[in-house]
Write a structure and sequence with these properties.
By secondary structure, the protein is of the alpha+beta class. Helices cover 52% and strands 19% of the residues. A hairpin with a 4-residue loop joins strand 4 (139-146) and strand 5.
């Protein structure tokens, strides 16, 4: 029985020693593999070329100075600029929804401007052809059309 116990103890000690040896060998292999991988990485690191430096500089320039975005809402917020009598007529006809009305005639009264406390404006007179044919003056409205697009009946 003592022989059996001694044999089992020796076998257990041997197996423990072998297992520690394998663990140490595995650790050594992993360390060696890691060192080789690190060395391979060092070998593959490229020196920067002129073109890569140019690309990096170009990328840096675009990162610091982004392209301006076009803002369509800014155009909507800007006031209209009416520069002459015909533009005032076209604008008012569109705003009054009379652009296709064949009976209404718009007259810019020579295209001259006047100024009041609200700004510079064109006077636009509207005539009705049918009212003129019936003997009347035909006037159906006189409007102030400001250069910024505002308008009001005069």
């Amino acid at each position: 029985m003592k022989k059996l116990a001694f044999t089992l103890f020796a076998l257990l000690a041997f197996m423990t020693a072998c297992s520690q040896s394998e663990t140490n060998e595995t650790s050594a292999e992993q360390t060696s593999t890691n060192e080789e991988t690190d060395m391979e990485k060092e070998d593959t690191v490229e020196e920067p070329t002129q073109s890569s430096e140019d690309e990096a500089e170009e990328k840096s320039d675009t990162e610091t100075a982004p392209e301006p975005e076009e803002d369509s809402s800014q155009e909507e917020d800007e006031p209209k600029t009416i520069a002459n009598g015909q533009e005032a007529i076209d604008y008012l006809a569109k705003e009054l929804d009379k652009a296709g009305n064949e009976d209404i005639v718009f007259d810019d009264l020579g295209g001259t401007t006047e100024t009041d406390q609200q700004g510079t404006y064109y006077t636009i007179q509207l005539f009705s052809k049918s009212l003129q044919e019936d003997g009347g003056s035909g006037t159906v409205g006189v409007y102030k059309v400001y250069e910024n697009g505002d308008y009001e009946i005069k």
